[in-house]
Amino acid sequence: xxxxxxxxxxxxxxxxxxxxxxxxxxxxxxxxxxxxxxxxxxxxxxxxxxxxxxxxxxxxxxxxxxxxxxxxxxxxxxxxxxxxxxxxxxxxxxxxxxxxxxxxxxxxxxxxxxxxxxxxxxxxxxxxxxxxxxxxxxxxxxxxxxxxxxxxxxxxxxxxxxxxxxxxxxxxxxxxxxxxxxxxxxxxxxxxxxxxxxxxxxxxxxxxxxxxxxxxxxxxxxxxxxxxxxxxxxxxxxxxxxxxxxxxxxxxxxxxxxxxxxxxxxxxxxxxxxxxxxxxxxxxxxxxxxxxxxxxxxxxxxxxxxxxxxxxxxxxxxxxxxxxxxxxxxxxxxxxxx
Length: 338
Ligand SMILES: *[C@@H]1O[C@H](CO)[C@@H](O)[C@H](O)[C@H]1NC(C)=O
Ligand SMILES: [Zn+2]
What we know:
Largest sheet: 8 strands, mixed
Subunit structure: Interacts with BEND3.
CATH superfamily: Cysteine proteinases
Strand content: 25-35%
EC number: 3.4.19.12
Protein name: Ubiquitin carboxyl-terminal hydrolase 21
Number of strands: 20
Subcellular location: Cytoplasm; Nucleus
Bound molecules: 2-acetamido-2-deoxy-beta-D-glucopyranose, zinc ion
Enzyme class: hydrolase
Structural class: alpha+beta
Low-confidence stretches: 122-128
C-alpha cells in the first residue's frame, strides 16, 4: 500500500523547476506505479545502466512512502545524476521547467528502452510514407513506458499553391508547445484559442517552404499541423516565453483551461476527452521566477511549493501562472461527430 503522496521536495538551490516537474510526474499514475514497482528492471533492454531511473524511482518512493516519517524528500542525488547525464543543462542559471521535463523524459526513455540500440540513419523515410508505417518504425527503435504514456504523433500537411499537391510528414511529440494569441486589449484567452492558433493554416513563402515533391522546387505553400495519434497523457506547454534578439520576455496572459473533458477531437482524427491532473506554474519574471505545482490525487488537489504542501480547491487552480498542463485520457468518450 502507498501513502498519500502529499510530501514536499527540498529546494537545494534554485531547484524549484525540478521540484515542480517531479511532483507533476509523481502524479502520473502509470509512471509512478512503474517506478514504485521497479517494473523497468525486468523489461529493460538498453545496455545502459538505469542510473537516472533508479534515482528518480527513489525520489518517488520517498514521496509515496506509507510511513511518511519525513515530510520532505531531498532530490540531491537524483539531481546530481541528472546533471551528469545531461551535462549541458547545468550551465544555465535560470532553468526552464519544460526544457527540464523534455530532457528528463528523453533520458529516462533511453535508459529503459525495450529496444536494442539501433543506429539511426540520417535519412528518414520518404515524406509520402503513411503515418502508421512511421509509427511502427518509431516503435521499432523507441519503445518504453515513457513512449506508452507520453508519445503522440503530429501530422504536418503541406499544400503547394502552384500545383495543389498535398503531402504529409509525421513527427513524434512528447508535449505540445502552444503559442498564446496576442491580445491588444490584454484580455484573457482560452486553451481552445491556443490550440486553434497552433493548428491554424500557415502560409510559407518560397524561402521557408520545403521542396514540393511534384514541382521539384520550393514553392509558396500552406502548412497545417494536426494530431495524428493521441497519447495517454498529453502535456501542454503554454509558451509564455518569447526569445527575441536581445532578450526573453514573458507573457502573463490569463489562459483559461478545462479541468475535465478537454476535447481534442477538432485537432485530430478521433474524439478523445482528457482530464487535468497536474499543473506546473511559473510565477514572477524571466529572471526572478518561481515554479510550483498543483496536483490531484484521490482526495483532491494540493499545492506543491518546494517543501510545503497545502490543499487547494478547484477554483484556485486557474491562474495566469499556468505554464505546463498535464492531461490524461478520460474513460468517457465524446459523442462521435465524424
Ligand atoms: C512558496 O514558498 C515560499 C517560501 O518557501 C514563499 O515565500 C512563497 O510565498 C510561496 N508561494 C506561494 C505562492 O505560496
Ligand atoms: Zn507543387
